[in-house]
Amino acid sequence: MSANHSPAGQQPTATYESAFLKACRREPVPHTPVWFMRQAGRSLPEYLKVREGIPMLESCMRPELVAEITLQPVRRHHVDAAIYFSDIVVPLKAIGVDLDIKPGVGPVVQNPIRTRADLAQLRDLTPEDVWYVTEAIGLLTAELGETPLIGFAGAPFTLASYLVEGGPSKNHEHTKALMYSDPQLWADLLDRLAEITSAFLKVQIEAGASAVQLFDSWVGALAPADYRRSVMPASAKVFDAVASYGVPRIHFGVGTGELLGLMGEAGADVVGVDWRVPLDEAARRVGPGKALQGNLDPAVLFASTEAVETKTREVLDAAAGLEGHVFNLGHGVMPSMDPDALSRLVEYVHTQTAS
Fold first, then answer.
1. Which among 158, 89, 160, 179 has a CA at the least distance from the CA of 125?
2. φ, ψ for residue 252 (rounded to 5)?
3. Residue 212's beta-bridge partner residues?
4. At what angle do helices 232-242 and 156-165 cross, to 10 degrees?
5. Less packed terminus of the chain by CB within 10 Å, N or C?
6. Are 254 and 221 in contact (CB under 8 A)?
7. According to the model, what pLDDT value does residue 12 have?
8. Element (H or E) spanning 158, and its range?
9. Cut 0.90: pTM above it
10. Coil vs helix vs strand at 180
């Protein structure tokens, strides 16, 4: 049974009445729920200690380590949901794509996808390919109890960008060149990535994740017309693939102010908003029937406590009329953030919004 539905005659899941899932369902909440993207954040000393000497991708494949890292921010910050510790390229690595995460660089792909023949690198993902995900989530749900676990995956466009560019890119020139020059190959690439991403999310939901978030980190590089024509069908396919589970589906991208309505239209129940668009304006762009997530500028956390509270109050005031609101930063936790500032932020949001 999904965490989002409580069919008649069946007992609800332990997480069903959590503030986080209530907000995602646009129901009244005891307080505004809080979690942070990348909330282990590389900022916690306990995180740095357990990761010491272990490469990123290897750390994502050790169930006990994944569970420990996922739980650390819940213990320290008392956030309302845990985000599964992983990386967006994990499913690609699991199906045999020759890639690695280079410290200080990011994912680097040995053989970029530029031709139709290159698509052969992308076979179907099976649960056996990511057995460690199932095992880690089993460990996590046993520990988390009533705290929901959010599943995690990269969206087809962002995965395609890494695969086509061969690594991180500021301008996405190879990606856009392929998208414009060979729209059929592009569509086939994104469709295959949608299948892989869907399979990865299904594994997490079936193992016990209470919600899922699709990260489209680089999609803000596109104009709305290009998104609608060349990206939205693949994202919609992912959301459709997991719709029957009934878990909330969150969609987030960076620099996506002009795409917010389309991202909601793709099938998300909750639309993540970065810090560039106030939440009341984001609600106007997204339209009714969706909860919103966000959207404090992460850089604010480096300011004084008084300044953080002032800016947080602005976010909460902008969210006052929303159908549902999950408080988050407008992007991920930065490595140099003071963990205590994050803990104070959670407590402030909880206190200010307690009913």
1. 89
2. -135, 140
3. 151, 249
4. 130
5. C
6. no
7. 62
8. helix 156-165
9. yes
10. helix
Q: Considering only CA atoms, which of 353, 270, 342 is closest in space to residue 302?
A: 342
- DSSP of 239-267, one letter per residue? HHHHGGG---EEEEESS-GGGHHHHHHTT
The rounded distance, in Å, linking the Cα atoms of 200 and 69 is 20
Q: Looking at the chain, how many residues does it have?
A: 355
Task: Give the model's pLDDT for residue 11.
Answer: 47
282-313 as b/e: b if 16+ CB within 10 A:
bbebbeeebbbbbbbbbebbeeeeeebbebbe
Distance from C-alpha of 310 to C-alpha of 221, rounded to nearest angstrom: 31
Coil, strand or helix: which one is 153?
A: strand
- Which amino acid would we find at residue 15? T
Rounded Cα distance, 182 and 196, in Å: 22
Distance CA 40, CA 43 (A): 7
Question: Which of 53, 78, 57 is closest to 66 using CA atoms?
Answer: 57
DSSP state of 41: T
- Residue 106 φ then ψ, to 5°: 120, -165
pLDDT tens, 179-199? 999 999 999 999 999 999 999
For the chain, what is the total number of helices (H) and then of strands (E)? 15, 9
Helix (H, G, I), strand (E, B) or coil at 53: coil
Three-class SS of residue 109?
strand
At 29, give phi and psi (nearest 5°).
Answer: -125, 150
